[in-house]
Amino acid sequence: MKITFPHMSPVPVYKKLVELLGHEPIVPPRPTQETIDLGVKYSPEFACFPLKVILGSYIEAIRMGAEMILTSGGDGPCRAGYYAELHKRILAKLGYNMDFIIFDSVFINFRDFMRKLKILKGDLTAGEVVKVLKTVYRFSQSLDRSEKKLQIIRAYSLSSKDCDTAWDKINRIYDKAYSYSDIDSAESRASELIEGIPVFRVKEENKIRVGIVGEIYVVLESSVNMEIEKVLGRLGAETERSQYLSEWIDRYMLPSFIRKAYKKDKLDKIEAKGEDFIKINIGGHAKETVGFIKDFRDRGFDGVIHLMPFGCLPELVTQTIVPSITEKTGMPVLTMPIDEQTGNTNNITRIEAFIDLIKSKKFTAARTAGSAAGSV
Amino acid sequence: SIRKKETFCPKFLGLPDMSISIFKELGSKMISPEIREKNERISGWKNYRIIGEMFSIPDKEIKAAIKKAGRVWDDFRAKSLRGFAINDILQKKAGSGADAGTDSGGRPEERRNGTAPAQSSLKLHSNVINIGLMGYVYNICDNYISMDIIGKLKEKGINVITFEMLGPEIPYSNLKHLRKPLFWTFSNYLLGAGHYFLDQENIDGIIHVTAFGCGPDSYIGKMMELLSEEKKKPFLTIRVDEHSGESHLITRVEAFTDMIERKKALDEGRISLS
Question: How far apart are CA B22 and CA B29, in angstroms?
Answer without folding.
Answer: 13
